[in-house]
Amino acid sequence: MSRILPADGVAFEFTAPVVVIGGGAAGMVAALAAHERGAGVLVLERDALPQGSTALSAGLIPAPGTRWQRDAGIEDSPDRFAADIVAKAKGEPDPAAVARVAQAVGPALEWLADRYGLPFSVVDNFSYPGHSARRMHGLPSRSGAALIDRLRGAVETAGIDVLCEAQVTALVADGGDIRGVEITRPDGSVERVGCGALVLACNGYGGNKALVERHVPELAGALYFGHPGNQGDALIWGEALGAATRHLSGHQGHGSVAHPAGILVTWATITEGGVQVNAEGRRFSNEAQGYSEQAAVVLRQPDGIAWTVFDDRIAGIARQFEDFRQAEAMGAVLTADAPAELARQMKIDADAFSATLAEVDRLKAAGGTDGFGRDFAGSAPLLPPYRAVRVTGALFHTQGGLVVDDDARVLDAQGTPLPNLYAAGGAACGVSGSKASGYLSGNGLLTAVALGRIAGSAAASAVKEGTNR
């Protein structure tokens, strides 16, 4: 399906200066940026409604040095954010790529707020693992669905053309020069659209089982919690064009997806002092390391199941997220006044579970570190009423991809930019390195928003200046 067609003899029904493939956050931001630079833009979306993986996320974007942080008294900077990214990924990401997005994302959020009215605010009541400052920004609902709705509304208000149910099945190219795309409609009809520049914003390959088995074998059988349209088209096209790729094994997992409800349970349930136990009622890891690496750890437990355990105070914090409110409404969150009663509802060994919580309480009181390396110093005790959610590990999205430069232009294996091809979001190599443990919370939407704006602006400028060929 993801083919490259030679340009010789291909006729196009019409031509758009900038074509964007994908209607998630990266594609919508790219379209807004290109439009603002005065270029005609066409967004192509395979689904009936643009949503992408963004709609499945909590919609939180990490950004340093923003006005919302300043208003909340939070000290932060792009350099500090970049250091956190590199530290989480153990020095693997390209420092230039990290600096690029760390510097661009704050201004991008303020631009979206000022120009398009997106009402961002900073999450200032809990911290995510690896972040040395509270820098997660989201809309009031803390919902990815709300984020993509607002971005889609901004695109519609700007008068940008969005063609839905238009799956791009081939790129038309003259060597590395993209001349257009082939679109296949649900009824099988085919159209060809020319372009001056192309932005790949169609995410990674998380929905392609063969590519997941090849690059992330440890999650080959895991629940996939991303968008099914993430079939690796950008990667396949890029490789066929000779593009450089990097960190293809990098990915974001999540160790707390309610099962079988299939709802994300915010990691605040852990960072605020909650724990995870397995079907035996025992803890099995340092949960506080990060939710991405915890996915594979949970999947190694009996039946690939764990329980996220917290209390009423933590539930109050978690309710700022629409997903958590939905989980409660569905009855996925169990409640009890005593550990033994909660264990009965969980159908696990009450004695083992009670002993586990007693040991956690002891560690918190002593400010101690457990055998897994989790430091409980300063962590509030769990108090009744207690809460528990049955969860599993899941693959959310891949983090490796096409290598891009400071203008989000796709580079070939020698580091030379392809003439008019750009990539953003999951289509581009992210800043998480090659392992799940390198994923710093928010890295996915970070590159969607930061690189989306960079790619759209650069593509529009190149087309207008005639420098894309």
Automatic annotation (TrEMBL):
Keyword field: FAD, Flavoprotein, Oxidoreductase
SUPFAM superfamilies reported in the protein's UniProt record: FAD/NAD(P)-binding domain (SSF51905), Succinate dehydrogenase/fumarate reductase flavoprotein, catalytic domain (SSF56425)
Any one Pfam family match given in the protein's UniProt record, by short name: FAD_binding_2
Coiled coil segments of this chain: none
Stored InterPro entries: FAD-dep_OxRdtase_2_FAD-bd (IPR003953), FAD-oxidoreductase_2 (IPR050315), FAD/NAD-bd_sf (IPR036188), Succ_DH/fumarate_Rdtase_cat_sf (IPR027477)
Keyword field contains Cell cycle: no
Domain of life, per lineage: Bacteria
Presence of the UniProt keyword Chaperone in the record: no
Cofactors (names): FAD
Domain FAD-dependent oxidoreductase 2 FAD-binding: residue ranges: 18-434
Matches recorded under PANTHER family: 3-OXOSTEROID 1-DEHYDROGENASE, FUMARATE REDUCTASE
Annotated protein name in UniProt: FAD-dependent oxidoreductase
